[in-house]
Amino acid sequence: MHTVLITGAAGSIGTGLRRLLKGVYPKLRLSDAKTPADLGGDEEFMPAELTDVQAVERAVKGVDGIVHLGGFSVEGPWDTILKSNIIGCYNVFDAAARAGVQRVVFASSNHAIGFYPRHRRLGVEAAVRPDSRYGASKAFGEAIGALYAFKHGLRVTCIRIGNFADKPVDRRRLSIWISPADLAQLVRIGLDHPDIRYEMFYAASDNARGWWDNSAAYRFGYWPQGRAEEHRDEALAAQAKLSSNPIAEWYQGGPFCSDEFNGGVEHSPV
Ligand code: 15L
Fold it and tell me: For residue range 33-64, what is the model confidence (pLDDT) as tens digits?
């Protein structure tokens, strides 16, 4: 990989990753709808709305790999999700394939599988069970990634991100937290590992309360260094101050499951 494009570079994951990937690849190109507040003089930035096909084509031109973080990162109105995460995601994969980009690492989310109960240990074969329009758009991105991998030869890695932060901030996050350094490690596997064709990884650190079987990532050499339990007391103290909701607490997706909940399955056993 010589030139790597990071979409969504102004967001919190983009901001963390571009610091961690600096110097790893000879050239990092950044893109977002808005300019990152802390853009350095030595950083290349190309503004692009993901719905603007020509802007996306300009951003992907000449790059070897893409880390696609761009889009709307929480639940939102359908029109927003449709434009940013469905049309925008399609545009990135399609422009990448047409431009001869070799690899895409797609930032999926735990919300693609949020409606599984917390006692369920999930591998990457489990059917998607989105907890929101946002989660469904991430499942769409995973599917588009598979299409472009198997039909057009892009090498694609989908990373179902738990919660990216310096430390886990509540009980749910003790299970799904990922440190910035561990996420950078997964992204680098997606960009560099010679055996990637189409892979799905869970982006979680080495969390004793983890819900996911991440053996796919371990097979590719992932060796997480973050341990959520080291922050347990602080996270549980913060949890004690939060209001409780039985639906949010039953399911992996937490409040994404209880928000707008209306007559669904309150307590799925499986
Ligand atoms: C996500 O996918 C969101 O982007 C992030 O803002 C958090 O809500 C995270 O999931 C989470 O589940 O904690």
Answer: 999 999 988 899 999 999 999 999 999 999 99
- Residue 203, SS3 per DSSP: strand
Q: Which residue among 25, 90, 134, 251 is the active-site one?
A: 134
Give residue 86's identity as a one-letter amino acid code: I
Can you tell me which atom of ligand 1 is nearest the CA of 73?
4
Structure token digits, residue 244: 């409780």
Picking from 74, 198, 195, 79, the residue whose alpha carbon sits closest to that of residue 144 is 198
pTM of the model: 0.98
The protein residue whose alpha carbon is closest to atom 4 in ligand 1 is 73
Pair of tokens at residue 30:
């950044």
CA of 2 to the centre of ligand 1 (A): 30
Q: Which of 72, 161, 176, 258 to mutate to test the pocket of ligand 1 (most atoms within 8 A of CB)?
A: 161
Q: What is the pLDDT of residues 78-104, one digit of tens each?
A: 999 999 999 999 999 999 999 999 999
Active site residue 148: no
